[in-house]
Amino acid sequence: MKQASIEDKLAVNKYTIDKDVHIKIDGKICKTCDKHYCLYACPAHCFTLSNGGITFSFEGCLECGSCRIVCPNRAVDWTLPRAGFGISYQYG
Amino acid sequence: MQVFDAIVVGAGPAGSACAYSLAKEGLEVLVVERGSFAGAKNTWGGAFYGPVLTNLLPDFWQEAPVERPIFQHRYSFLSGESCLSVDYTGPRFKSRPYNGFTMFRAKFDAWFASKAQQAGAIIATGLQADDVLKNGGRISGIRAGGDELPARVVVACDGVNSILAQKAGLRGELLPGDVKQGVKEVLEFPPGEVARRFNLFDGGGIDWEFIGDCTRGLPGGAFIYTNKESLSVGVVVGLKSLVETGIRADDLLEDFKRHPAVAGLIEGGRLVEYSAHLIPVSGLGMMPRRLYADGFLVAGDAAALVLGTGLALEGANFAVSSGIAAAQAVLKATKESDFSAKTLCYYQKLLEESFVLKDLKTHQKAPHFLENRRIYSLYPKLACELADSVFTSDGKPRKRTWKLLREKMKGRVSFYRMARDLIEAARAL
Ligand SMILES: Cc1cc2nc3c(=O)[nH]c(=O)nc-3n(C[C@H](O)[C@H](O)[C@H](O)COP(=O)(O)OP(=O)(O)OC[C@H]3O[C@@H](n4cnc5c(N)ncnc54)[C@H](O)[C@@H]3O)c2cc1C
Fold first, then answer.
1. Residue A3: is its pLDDT beyond 80?
2. How much of chain B exceeds pLDDT 70, in percent?
3. Is residue A28 part of a domain?
4. Does A1 reside within a domain?
5. Average of pLDDT values for A50-79?
6. Residue B177 pLDDT exceeds 80
7. B258 touches chain A (CB under 8 A)
8. Could you tell me which of B340, B335, B338, B351 has the C-alpha nearest to residue B299?
9. Pairing status of strand B296-298 against strand B154-156
10. Which of B16, B112, B149, B258 is deepest in the core (most CB within 10 A)?
11. Does position A2 have pLDDT exceeding 80, yes or no?
12. Could you tell me which chain A residue has the CA closest to the CA of B128?
């Protein structure tokens, strides 16, 4: 089986994307962080490292809550997406 | 404004079991579920160990959207390209009432919630509980979608990330060391293909767990569950160990899918879903000391009622059982018109008397034991190397198995250390 990229995986999922972002990160704190646990914690690769800082895209979020609890600096402001939005599993 | 007899937050197995039990007795129950349908936000392995549900819904599996009854349990140790397996099947697992079923949460949870609804509960999907209402010291309802919804009692069944149990002050923040992250793919096949590949012509299914290189030695394992015409393939790994080593669970899953013992079996499967979820795995070590407060109960994953022994990962049946116990406590409180902690503590007593807290107590050393890295690296490796030697016939004189083992252990683990690990395993599992 050929290796599936995370984009391939997320592409098959059903999402209802909100215009509001439900997870915010404090970029100033991220710039000073040398751990970047969020990169490895997120099973949807929502966090990316660029120019020493972290950027976050919420569209692929699987709402697992990992990023909320791994950040040692509490730089992740985590809430659930508004009811009716986000991931909608058809199998689960 | 209407005051509900009970508000149940979350329509997973715990919430639906609780709501069903309460509605059946004529209570006015509101279930608040954030997904657009019950199950929309939920994923797991998984296998449901059903007998607890037959108390509520006898023969539920004849009606519920289950995939396959589990006839076989298989454990495999992976090391490099090697794989050593133990496989168990017995007549008891093949007869009714079946011991376990593979199933999909998006389908099962929706069905279970519909049963609660038929019993009289109101299921409000697409509604999120944001906070508890407090009146004096007691909890008197929830805040959801900008509205205040009053109730005599609130039962928090909102899963591992439970906001409500935190707001009610029963538990603190989750710690990365107390959870495992599970990632899973559902791979679909043409009709009949899963049965052919796994020799499942009697309609049954396999619960197959892997330990070893599939997590690169990190605490956890991998799994394959056979569904009717698809496979659930995933990896479960300690979140703390992932971030500390800079390994991603989905990379482990890709490695696992390429392992020679696995690759051929899943070849050609069409990916139809990728999901992830956390599992609270520290048992009594993370469970809130009190599972009740004035006007408030917490059940299922929200209370960390999950049994993880390495051999078993069971949470859904614990959720159902705790949901039923919570309902019993609410019924008692209703009868006595007293929703204070003094009456609701009956819930915890019921759990202590049932398998829920008994099993967690029996295995309370398991979470610590399962942190031992040798279980995931050295021992699977030794087991595979030993099997390799035992089965090799190369024209050279053979050695006794015991001697082979001692040779392989040399410089890697002392006899004393291994004996200690064995004793600890015996005590924990
Ligand atoms: C990868 C993986 C494999 C697993 N394998 C197995 C297995 O094989 N066998 C087994 O028995 N268990 C397994 N489990 C564990 C099992 O899934 C859980 O223990 C079980 O789902 C717990 O049920 P629950 O009702 O307590 O919580 P959940 O199933 O998590 O349900 C919580 C519900 O509450 C809703 N909710 C959450 N917050 C709010 C809110 N604020 N407002 C409204 N609604 C809300 C959610 O949408 C959800 O529907 C596995 C778990 C994972 C992650």
1. no
2. 100
3. yes
4. no
5. 92
6. yes
7. yes
8. B351
9. parallel
10. B16
11. no
12. A83
Please state the rounded mean pLDDT for residues B171-185. 96
Alpha-carbon span B16 to B114, nearest angstrom: 9
> What is the atom index within ligand 1 of the atom nearest the CA of B317?
11
The verdict on residue A32 lying in a domain is yes
Domain that holds residue A57: 6-88
Q: Among B16, B34, B127, B322, say which to mutate for ligand 1: greatest number of ligand atoms within 8 Å of CB.
A: B34
Chain A contact present for B239, CB below 8 A: yes
Domains by residue range for chain B, with CATH = 6-60+103-173+285-362 (3.50.50.60), 369-428 (no CATH)
Distance of CA B309 from the midpoint of ligand 1 (Å): 18
Distance CA(B280)–CA(B305), nearest Å, equals 8
- What total of structural domains would you count in chain A? 1
Q: Residue B24 has which token pair? A: 């059946």
Write the CATH number for A54.
Answer: 3.30.70.20
The confidence band for A1, taking pLDDT boundaries of 50, 70 and 90, is low
The whole-number pLDDT of residue B309 equals: 87
pLDDT in tens, B289-324: 999 999 999 999 999 999 998 878 999 999 999 999
What is the residue whose two structure tokens read 């029996």? B362
Ligand 1: which of B42, B239, B287 to mutate, most ligand atoms within 8 Å of CB? B42
Q: In a 10 Å sphere around its CB, with 0-12 CB exposed, 13-18 middle and 19+ buried, how is residue B246 labelled?
A: exposed
B200 close to B191: Cβ distance less than 8 angstroms: no
Tell me if A38 is assigned to some domain: yes
As for the ipTM of the complex, it is: 0.97
Integer Cα distance of A13 and B198 in angstroms = 27
Instruction: Give which of B78, B36, B91 is closest to B256, Cα–Cα.
Output: B78
Q: Would you give the distance in Å from CA B23 to the centre of its chain? A: 26
| Ligand 1, atom 35: closest residue by C-alpha | B10
- B344, pLDDT greater than 80: yes
Percent of chain B with pLDDT over 90: 95
Mean pLDDT score, B395-417: 93
User: Among A48-57, B83-92, B168-177, B279-288, where is mean pLDDT lowest?
Assistant: A48-57
How many Cβ contacts (< 8 angstroms) between chains A and B?
135
